[in-house]
Amino acid sequence: MDSAEILATVTLRAGFNSAVVVAGTACLGIAAGVIGSFMLLRKRAMVSDALSHATLPGIALAFLAATALGMEGRSLPVLLAGALFSGVLGVLAIQAVSRFTRLPEDAAIGAVLSVFFGVGVVLLSHIQTLATGNQAGLKTFILGQTAAMNRNEAMAIAGLALAALTACVLLFKEFRLLCFDPGFAVGQGWPTVRIDLTLMGLTTLVTVIGLQTVGLILIIALLIVPPAAARFWTEKLWAMLVIAAVLGGVSGWLGASLSALVPRLPAGAVIVLVAGALFLFSFLFAPARGVVATAWRQTRLRLAYAEQAALTALLHGRHPPSRRMEGWLKFRGMLNDGALTQPGREAARAAERNRRLWERFLIHYPTLVPGRANWGIDPIDRVLPRDLVLELESFPESLSP
Amino acid sequence: MMTTPIMTAQEFLQIDLPAMTAAVLACISCALVGNFLVLRRQSMLGDAISHAILPGIVVGFLVTGSRAGLPVIIGALAAAVLAGVLIEAVRRLGRLDGGAAMGVVFTVMFAGGVVLIEQGAARAVDLDADCVLYGQLEAILWLAPTRWSDLADPAVWADLPHQVVVLAAVALLCIVCVTLFYKELALTSFDPNLATTLGYPAGLFHYGVVVLVAVAAIASFEAVGSILVVAMLICPAATARLLTDRLPVQLWLSVLIGGVTGAGGYLLGAFGPSVLAGEPADALNAAGMIATLAGVLLTAAVLFAPRHGILGRRHAALKASDDEQDGGKRNEVVSNAATR
Q1: Which residues of A, range 50-89, sit inside 8 Å of B by Cβ?
Q2: A382 burial type by CB count under 10 A (0-12 exposed, 13-18 middle, 19+ buried)
Q3: Phi, psi for residue A339 in degrees, rounded to 5
Q4: A360 near A400, Cβ under 8 Å?
Q5: Beta carbons within 8 Å of A359's beta carbon, 6+ residues apart
Q6: CA-CA distance, A261 to A244, in Å (whole number)?
Q7: pLDDT in tens, A195-206
Q8: B281 touches chain A (CB under 8 A)
Q9: B340 pLDDT band (50/70/90 cuts)?
Q10: ipTM here
């Protein structure tokens, strides 16, 4: 395989069939990213894990029922209907157990996940012994396989994914309310139970249509990994949804292309690995909440605090700075031969004024404290409005402690 | 009824006895340590570990070319520890919800394992995803005994399949650890803050439980597969939790339920179809059957447990309202409770 072939597949020019499969998987990734974001914020990520494992017995039962009725057992709509049925049954079982017994929800999730999967495995081993059994076809649902997908199936997946996405966009306001303050939503008279069920229903839909491409063990990754990665980039919900959709779409796109190109690369696993790589990059380098950016901000804050404390101490002739701080101040041109330079003295006075004004502000207006400012460090003129700063300056000195 | 026998003594001794013993031992180890997962509300950690050890197993397998042996166990343990560290790192540094951190780490590691399996299989290595997912109880054979009387011969015992030996050792390890640290485990599970103020390192015991779960899961994984280990970890402990309020009773019950589930599930899977058909028939997947049986028992407990089951509680409530009308009897109950 050469680079031209790779480019052709990734850019959807390697035949109509593979283009439809790749585009369908990308649509699935987009829908899963958006719906998974709400599940993540609702702290329900692991429920979707149980949901996806719980689809296996439904698939096997649907196959058995269809074969017994003389129909083609492998027909996709029949199998997906079965998957939908047992997935919903699994979710209801979790809710019943965690609501009506003393068992915690996580135990209910784990029990439903493993027991449903176990029943599915038993049914699969039974199907294997049947004369008509074509278990190879069913096994693709466990780890996923794009190669088995035909054009119509891919188009159906894309269509359903876009429908789920549309529903999510239309219910944006309701879902946001449910995720951030369910108690308030109840108080305002919103039908939270129905909204919650709708969200679970959309998750089930995405899970079921993703069974064939990603497989039931790893479909949960499409619902968790892109939203978790998107969380690092922004503090705004709509931006998180857009980023999660993009990351999910890219994972589906690249994963399906790679799996089509390289032999023996299962699509589901490759899609998850692409999503995992995107997550790792976001986790480390995203500007809003990434590890590097956070560490950089914390270091800067710590340094600014130490620098201002050292400058104020020097201004009043109190204890001298530490050796390291002395070197830092010299490097900044604020200290020369143990005495403050002209810019150093100015910076020290500004720091002292800033600290005093912050103190007065915190004493007189404790309810107005802005959430995201670093008190005492950020220049107060930039954080508070001008008239408030003037008022703080006019307070008599004796009021400050 | 003179049909062909479902099996001979030799078949049972060579095929079914070692497999059933392995299943029972795996179930007992998992059930015992699973109690502490359920009590600590960390059941999903069992799920995450059992998925995340896959790449370690595959790497160990690719290095040695055999499914058993030290490298596989070391690889799996390393993967479990790596998963634990990564989950904690993502949760703390990334400020993500614990469930999401687990979901990210174990799915990506599992996906890596699947790709490694497929790529390894491409090089004609004897490993496929099936044996990892469903286990291979059927592959545990004990060729030495041919008759029941052979069991008295020590030479036969020396030929015991290594899987059974490993599982027995792990079961013993779990029992010894839980017995030795019973007080500390109980305290840190129920009230970690009190444990810390009393000077017990609650964090250390958290990691101790994680390591014990990983060891039990790794040893059992070969027998019952990576996903069904979760059923063994959670279901017996959850069932026992519904049946009693006392921790020692819960531990014993869970071990009992685990053992019964392991033996019963294996027998149902191996002989159920033959008994139903009245003639030798193909066996069902034993590991799946064990998980199914565990689920049936848990469902029964959820519904009918005397004090904590759904129907049991309703029954108790009805009885309480009867007692309400019969004031004297109610006072008697109260005074009984007070003297106890």
Answers
A1: 53
A2: exposed
A3: -125, 150
A4: yes
A5: A376, A400, A401
A6: 26
A7: 988 898 899 889
A8: yes
A9: very low
A10: 0.87
